[in-house]
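Retro notes (design track)

What went well: tokenization of the new backbones is finally stable.
What didn't: we kept losing track of which sequence belonged to which structure.
Fix going forward: every design gets posted as structure first, then sequence, in one message. First example under the new rule, 488 residues:
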């Protein structure tokens, strides 16, 4: 054969083999490689662990805390609102949502306290004259006595001499002298009952028994057998027990919910199931610097003297439930300078929002401003999102951008008065040329006022001089009172 033909045949076979191999490679390229060659719909900036947002990685894998890394996409930069988290991964992060809803929050406050003596129910027993203690009855501080119980017998020599002179004058029978002698016994401090006893028996009684003027417990006892006493010396102090005080410690944050006159139901562990009712008599003006609490003084009825000073008690302040906008208390992030919540928005995005917090109770917090009914907030796991938002430079939505609509309190309209001349009358309005109204800075002028009631203009005609009163509702100046006056 021709060598040249042989070389051409070998080259042809080789070329066919190369072409076949290339075609085979193209037809057997795995779909995965083709997919990787296609550009992604969202560009990934880096990979990170939401629990360690400052740790960034160039590709997928595990973080230093052995958590699966998440992609940070280019469209999640600060130009986009909030932080985006794949909804499929929220459960792994422990995110739980709560709804902003309108409900009722009881204004009642619970506070611990201690039973104390009622310092307004104290009787002081004093000696009315100088003398000597002849006998002290078996009494001691802490004893509970009924009214009229004897404390001590005193010998008062001065009273004995005055009583003898009084009896001698009575035997003379001179009424002016008798009255003068009797008045002298009163000035010496003798009780009326003792003077009447001397008159009835005709005998001198210079030993008297000092008794308790009221029932209660002996707080102090200052008499002993054989001691001498001076006029005005305190012998004992008796504290009543029919009503006692409960000094309850109120946290500063709840102080506005407690007021004098408010009803209180108190319970003590010594009597399970029993309730002692009373009222707040005062809020003491000083705050405890250590516990930052105020003291509410509550006066309780004490039937049978069951409440003992020194007992611990729990006070429940009565208050009607009030409507409020509520969120779970655990959803609120308190930074010290402000309060935040993490708003859950569509598409897995989360935005921090500043709020103003009011009362709290039953695991709910009142929202005064910053949220609207129906919005969703993160109730668990919000600290992770807040950290990511801070690192990403996302600013919290200010309170002013979303305020809670609350019913405006009813108020009495302010009336302004002036004098003027009727220029025109219609069924719904009156035109007046009136004098200045200094209260609102109006000069003298002619203007039209709406009639609050059509009957107000009855009996008034064009040209009459009138005195009138008006207010300024949103609809415009409105007459509330108008009457004719006599021209000067």
């Amino acid at each position: 054969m021709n060598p040249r033909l042989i070389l051409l045949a070998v080259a042809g076979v080789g070329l066919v083999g190369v072409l076949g191999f290339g075609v085979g490679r193209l037809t057997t390229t795995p779909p995965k490689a083709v997919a990787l060659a296609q550009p992604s719909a969202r560009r990934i900036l880096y990979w990170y662990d939401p629990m360690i947002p400052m740790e960034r990685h160039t590709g997928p894998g595990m973080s230093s805390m052995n958590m699966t890394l998440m992609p940070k996409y280019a469209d999640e930069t600060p130009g986009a609102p909030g932080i985006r988290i794949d909804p499929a991964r929220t459960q792994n992060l422990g995110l739980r949502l709560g709804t902003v809803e309108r409900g009722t929050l009881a204004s009642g406050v619970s506070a611990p306290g201690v039973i104390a003596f009622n310092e307004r129910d104290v009787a002081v027993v004093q000696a009315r004259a100088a003398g000597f203690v002849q006998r002290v009855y078996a009494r001691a501080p802490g004893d509970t006595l009924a009214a009229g119980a004897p404390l001590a017998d005193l010998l008062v020599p001065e009273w004995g001499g005055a009583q003898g002179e009084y009896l001698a004058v009575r035997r003379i029978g001179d009424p002016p002298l008798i009255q003068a002698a009797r008045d002298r016994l009163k000035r010496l401090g003798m009780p009326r009952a003792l003077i009447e006893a001397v008159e009835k028996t005709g005998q001198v009684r210079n030993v008297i028994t000092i008794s308790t003027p009221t029932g209660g417990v002996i707080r102090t006892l200052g008499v002993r057998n054989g001691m001498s006493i001076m006029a005005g010396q305190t012998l004992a102090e008796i504290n009543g027990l029919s009503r006692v005080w409960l000094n309850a410690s109120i946290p500063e944050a709840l102080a506005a919910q407690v007021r004098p006159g408010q009803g209180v139901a108190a319970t003590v562990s010594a009597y399970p199931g029993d309730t002692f009712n009373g009222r707040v008599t005062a809020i003491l003006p000083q705050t405890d610097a250590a516990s930052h609490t105020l003291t509410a003084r509550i006066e309780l009825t004490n039937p049978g003297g069951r409440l003992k000073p020194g007992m611990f008690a729990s006070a429940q302040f009565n208050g009607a439930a009030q409507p409020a906008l509520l969120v779970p208390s655990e959803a609120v992030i308190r930074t010290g300078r402000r309060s935040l919540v993490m708003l859950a928005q569509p598409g897995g995005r989360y935005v921090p929002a500043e709020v103003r917090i009011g009362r709290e109770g039953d695991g709910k917090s009142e929202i005064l401003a910053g949220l609207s009914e129906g919005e969703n907030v993160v109730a668990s796991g919000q600290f992770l999102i807040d950290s990511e938002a801070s690192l990403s430079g996302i600013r919290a939505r200010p309170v002013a951008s979303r305020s809670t609509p609350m019913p405006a309190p009813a108020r009495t309209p302010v009336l302004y008065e002036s004098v003027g001349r009727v220029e025109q009358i219609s069924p719904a309005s009156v035109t007046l040329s009136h004098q200045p109204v200094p209260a609102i800075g109006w000069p003298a002028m002619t203007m039209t006022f709406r009639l609050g009631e059509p009957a107000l203009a009855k009996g008034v005609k064009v040209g009459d001089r009138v005195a009138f009163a008006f207010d300024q509702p949103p609809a415009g100046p409105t007459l509330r009172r108008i009457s004719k006056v006599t021209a000067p």
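Added context from the reviewer: The mean pLDDT is 78.
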